[in-house]
Amino acid sequence: MRIAAFLVILLVAEVTLAQTRYNVSSLSEFKSALNEAVNGDSVVWRSGRYEDVFMDINVEGLVVTAESYGAVIFTGESKVEIDADKVVLSGFQFVGGDIGTDNVIRNWGSDVLITQINILGYTSFKYLIVDEDSRRTTISHCNFESRINLADQNILSILVDNEPGYHKIQHCSFRNFRGSGGDMGVEPIRIGVSSQAHLDSRTIVEYCYFENCDGDGELISNKAAQNVFRYNTFENNTKGELVLRHGDEAIVYGNFFLNNMGGVRVREGQNHFIYNNYFSGLTSRAIYLQNESSDPLDSIHVYFNTIVDSEEVKLGGSGSFPPQHVVFANNIFSNPKGVIFDDPTGTEQWLGNLSLGSLGIDRPSGISDLDPKLIENDKGFFQLDSESPAIDAAVSGFPPIPMIDGLEFDDLKLDIMKQIRPDEIDQKDVGASEFPHTVDVQPYATTSNTGPAYSNDESIFSLSSSVVGEGSVTWSPIKDTYRLGEIITLTATPADGYQFSKWAGDLDGTDNPMMISITEDMNVIAEFALPVTPPPLGTGSKGAIEIFPNPTCDLVRLVLPSGSPSQLSLLVYDVEGKIRLSRQMTVVQDYLEVDVSMLPAAIYFLTLRNARNGEVVEEAGILRLIKN
Description:
14-stranded parallel sheet
């Protein structure tokens, strides 16, 4: 034992000595660091905004991170490929880029950690793809949001090989993917493809949050075998549900399905287990067992769930391939929007279930017509009252939940809130939660505890608008506050003789109206260009304005030619084209003095316009200011 311990100490010492930190602030510096770096080193991007950065990470054990989480923003054609093992990628934002049919992040490596990443408003193929060669990739505390293009391209894709991947997706948020639902292919998560249905993935998706993901009917598309979906929240998704497509032996437990179109749809496969879940406010169906010819359902197990205020459970009886060996055991069905069940096969096995409301089918002996006496807790979720007939009322006779090699998960030893259930079946409570409640029933994953730590405070913003020149800008929906990534529609109304030119954050856009995704500190600014054939410029000819001191840290003076307009509009742009300062100014003794102390250190460009008629006094981009 002493020899083994000594060898470990030597190994740790060797790794520690090898660690080197490379600070970079350009693609060329990153490439130089990559050429020198070895296992255990780190490459740290300095805070800033970078365009068209392709990080091809091929050094094993390399940490690639941001100087300050969230303060490094990549845009344009920026993307990442990881083709080495034990890489850590952390702390970056990818915002507003356009890489066409390429992927924002692609990983071939094994034992890779991708964490604290925000991808927002990109035009791309996948936001993140984990290839077949990868094993044990962990994706944690990331936000995936508002992809611009709506083609058949899912957001996070896990591919599967002949050996299980054992990947984990945890504490991530998926938000604001617009679309018409259906089979558009904009699934937030897809595990496997149809040709990989016979392969075991053994991927775990846990503690993730899905909201306003309407780009496809499938919030998660399960297309491989032996995956676990637990402790996730699916909320306000008006067109989607968790879907078990191809592949067998899916485990679905501890999830909250709230105010969605649906809860769980089982289209294909055998030996699925759905238990300890909470369903509420579902507008189309809570659970849907399909009658599907391609891979008919067999051995579907639905245990210890609580379903309230939702549309029916569809049982798949209509058609030539009805589900076989379906077991509903110890569930609560309460206060349905219509009926509780629809389209029975007549072969379902019912054990220990309680119902309140119109059943919709002939009542079998395994569904008792008893009010489960649910009470609403302070968080707005229903749990058992002390007088509930569900207490100590579970019955046996249902198939046990099998274990899967290499995965650990609860098999009804705990309830939905991880309270211990009694070992004896007749002492377990019916439904998702046990009484008494040491922890109130409530979702684990919320909008404020998923995604990157630097933006998990719900990121609430108000919007303001400012029009340069003449005209107006409006947006919808109109609300007091907006979330990061929320989609709004902007409409410009130009004045007569003017044409719409620019939005902040979209320098090339000329569509009217247009959709944008809110980013931090977004100040909605519309600029209206001069008429297509502008009048001749006045006295402020190109190159005639002097600017000093330059660089500066606080005040800058602009010396104007004599005869310049007395009232000017000053615009200060950053290198991304965003207007950082807009002021109406009066010329005194042929100069302007401008306080720029509030601007971050960077390079800026100044434009001056005649405040009366909008005429450009100095061509944009000629006046360059360096702020220290």
